Amino acid sequence: MSTFLKVLFVILVILVIILAVLYYFGRKMERRQVEQQAMMKAAEQVVSMLIIDKKKLKVKESGLPKMVIDQTPKYMFWAKLPIVKAKVGPKIMTLIADDKVFQTLPVKAEVKAVVSGIYITQIKSVRGGKLETSPAKKGFFARFKKDKTKQDTESAKKNSQNKKA
């Protein structure tokens, strides 16, 4: 066999081994996630709270309890978490929100939310109004495309100006 085929074969074997390891760890992490979701479902409770503030903060800056910070994996220290300060009963608590919930959560409003430990998983209702939904973000290429209605009105204006002249 030529050296090129040997090198190609070794690279192929290494890629197969890497894919097998990733598949194994992916399945293991998936099972762990399913177990955690079941535990969160079991601990859910509906709570009425007044949202004071919401921010995306790093774990160290978040004001979460020391026990939570100690249990946080090392790779999460650089990530920013959606942190919500809320008054639950007489206590002011620091909670972590789901990303979808964080976007729709109104500030300075009373909310009934589903909470599992210190994690807000869902909003049931907002007192005194409707739940505000943020507008959908445009994709990267959608920003550069011209709106057809704007384009049609612009072309109609140009045509009318050309006819007048």
Break the fold down into its secondary structure elements and pairings.
Blueprint: H1 3-42, E1 44-58, H2 66-71, E2 80-88, E3 91-97, H3 99-104, E4 110-116, E5 119-126, H4 148-164
Parallel strand pairs: 3-5
Antiparallel strand pairs: 1-2, 1-4, 2-3, 4-5
Rg, alpha carbons: 26 Å
Main sheet: strand order = 1-2-3-5-4
Task: State the end-to-end distance.
Answer: 78 Å
Name the structural class: alpha+beta
Number of DSSP helical runs = 4
Helix percent reads 40-55%
Q: In one word, what is the shape?
A: flat
Q: State mean pLDDT (0 to 100 scale).
A: 84
Query: How can the largest sheet be summarized?
Result: 5 strands, mixed, barrel
User: How much strand?
Assistant: 25-35%
Give unreliable regions as ranges. Answer: none
Element pattern in H and E = HEHEEHEEH
Number-wise, the strands total 5
